[in-house]
Amino acid sequence: MNTADADDILVDDLPAPRHSRRLAVVTETYLPEVNGVAMSMARVVDGLNRRNHDVQLIRPRQSAKLTVPSSGKPAVDEVLTKGLPVPLYPNLRMGVPSKRALVKLWSLKRPDVVHIATEGPLGWSALQAAQHLALPVTSDYRTNFHAYGKHYRLGLLSKPIMGYLRKFHNRCDATMVPTESLRTLLSERGFERLSVVGRGVDAQRFDPARRSEAMRQGWGAEPGDLVMGYVGRLAPEKNLGVLLAAYEAVKVAQPRVKLVFVGDGPMRAELVARAPEAVFVGQRSGDDLAAHYAGLDLFLFPSLTETFGNVTTEAMASGCAVVAFDSAAAGELIRSGVNGWLAGPGREADFVAAVRVAASDAAARLAVADAARMTARRLDWADITARFESVLEGAIVRGACADSANAKAFRRDSVPFNVTS
């Protein structure tokens, strides 16, 4: 083999260079705000940046009380807009109408695609601006706003909210949803161009090795005591009355059982009154949050309003046995009795019964927790980002094909002028 032949082989073995895109990502919540949208969008933005894309992040300016650790600052071009407190979520901000500013911004630096993570005023402005400039646009369906109505006396608004969401997403080139069951549900309600893009979990951070007996003792748990817990917003839409019912049922057989709430929200005072012996630790984040998960033996998640529920996968990765309703991430990932326990959606008695079964059998609980950890370790964020990237690329390609077809039609239909002297 001569040198030229060897060089040819080396060149052929090199992977094709990744095509870098200019991406505009619009979201009305982002780290260090504590919620699933903020966390998962930060993961996706970081992944896109690592995949050599030029990411422009557009979001409302956050409260001065929120600080981002230096290691948590995104290596992207950030554009901060005005923001207002979100109704029902005073610690969060939402954007204000900003179409004119976005048209100007994207006229000067045109992105290849605009991705909209939230459907609030800033998201609607981004959609209008993108369509004004004939830019491809994709979106996420992340929050079941229409399902919150019965919890906040907004029942009459459920249909108008669903109509708005359908109008919003059907004006996009693609809408990403986190589960196949949600894709089916939205498709039946008239949503179009839906693609399933799940959620990952950091199985290195959320790890059973972070379990701390000292932390458990601080909760009042002695070795061998059962500790059940919940992580998330303490709010009506999380269906926490069912959790309390399950806790009371377990206490009958195991008086030393401990209940830990990680999170905060408008229901905290009510929950303290109803379960004064429970432990309320407030909001936690990072490795501290991971240690709290790992300290639990049984994770209870009774919510029926999630589009995914990142806490489910975080608990599974942390080696917790999970009891949940057959909905969202739990419905997609858990096989009841194998790597968790499920109750039929809305079957509260079945949820309580499943908790009693899980609480009464330590050996089964440990086997389920090990299986849950194995399931979660397969949910790699790199794979999720690649799927997300492919949906963006599809929208870009379809937009380019449409532009080409329109240009050809224009040339075909144009009638040349006859120039005479």
From TrEMBL:
CDD domains hit by this protein: GT4-like
Domain of life: Bacteria
Pfam family for this entry, one: Glyco_transf_4
InterPro entries: Glyco_trans_4-like_N, Glycosyltransferase_grp1
Record-annotated Glycosyltransferase subfamily 4-like N-terminal domain positions: 34-205
PANTHER family documented for this protein: SULFOQUINOVOSYL TRANSFERASE SQD2
UniProt-recorded name of the protein: Glycosyltransferase involved in cell wall biosynthesis
Source organism of the structure: Roseateles asaccharophilus
